[in-house]
Amino acid sequence: MASNNDLKGIAAGFAALYVLLAAGCGNPTTGEFRPHPFPVPDIPAMIGSESEAVSYLAAHFWDDFTDTSEIFVCDSSIVNGVRKGEVEQAFANWTGYLHAVPLAEACGAVERMFGRIVSFEERDTSANVFETVASLAEKYLYDPNSPLRSEDLYLPFAGRMAECMLVSPGKRAAYEYDAGMCSLNRTGTPAADFAFCDRNGRRYTLYGLESDYTLLFFSNPGCEACKYIIDELKSDPELSSLIASGKVAVANIYIDEDLEAWYGYQSIYPEEWYNGYDPNFIIRTDLLYNVRAIPSLYLLDRDKTVLLKDAPEERIFAELHKID
Known about the structure:
This protein has twelve helices and nine strands. About 45% of the residues lie in helices and about 10% in strands. Helix 1 (about 5-15) crosses helix 3.
C-alpha cells in the first residue's frame, strides 16, 4: 500500500495538470505574524488507492483552511493566515481534483466547500475567506477565458450564492441569473435542438445530423482562437480521420448578424463540416445556449446528449482522441 505522502503526491499530479500560477502577494503588514502555507489535509491512512486519494482531496481540500477553531490574520494580502496568491494557487489545484472525479462527486465537493466557507463567515464576519473563495470560484470556474472553466461545477456554487443571506440582494439576483444560464444544456442532458442554414440556403437541424458524435462549434469569422481550432482539427490525422469517416460531425455555427463577413470566410471552413448560420438569431436571443464567448465547444453523443459543455479545446481534443 502506498504511503500517505505517496498518495498525496500522486493526487497532486492530477491537479498539476490544471495549475495556474497566481500572482504572489507582497510582504504582509501584520507585524510579527508570519503567513503559513495553505493547509492541504492529510489523506487518512485507510485510503490506499490513487482514485480514493483524489476523491478525498476533492471533498476535503478546504477542511483545514476553514477550520474555525483558530482564525488567523486576514487583510488585503493574507486570507486566514495564508498569502492570497497561495490561496489562489490552491484553488487552481483543487479544481484539478474536481476535474479528475465523476461530475456528481465534484458537484458534491463544491457544495461541501460552500457550506464550510459559509460557516467560517458566520463564525467571524470580519474574515475575508468567504469573499475570497467566492471570487476565485467565479474566476476559475465561470470566466470564459479560464482553461479550468466548468459551468457544471459553477452551477451548484452559483445556486447556493443566489440563496445565501450573506450576499447582497443585487448580487443574489446576479447569481440567480448565472445559475439559470449554467442550467442550460448541462452535461448528461439532451442538447437544445435548433435549425441552421448553410451558404447555399440548405436548412439543417442539430438533431438531423447523423453521426456517432457531434462537435458543436460556435465560431466567428476572423476569430484567431477559432482559426486555431479549425487548423488543429484539420491537421491532426486522427481527428481529421474521424471527421472524414463521418464518425464525428462538426456543426460549425455562426450566431451573429454580419452574414457578409461570414460568407467571406467560407474558404477557411472545411467543406466536410456542417458550416451554417442561425437564420432567425434565436440561439442567443432565446437563450438556447449560454454562449458567453467565442469560440465555444460542445461534444455530443449520437443521441445529442451533452458529453462536454463549453469545454476548453484541450479537453475536447483529448476526449475525441479516445474515440475508437
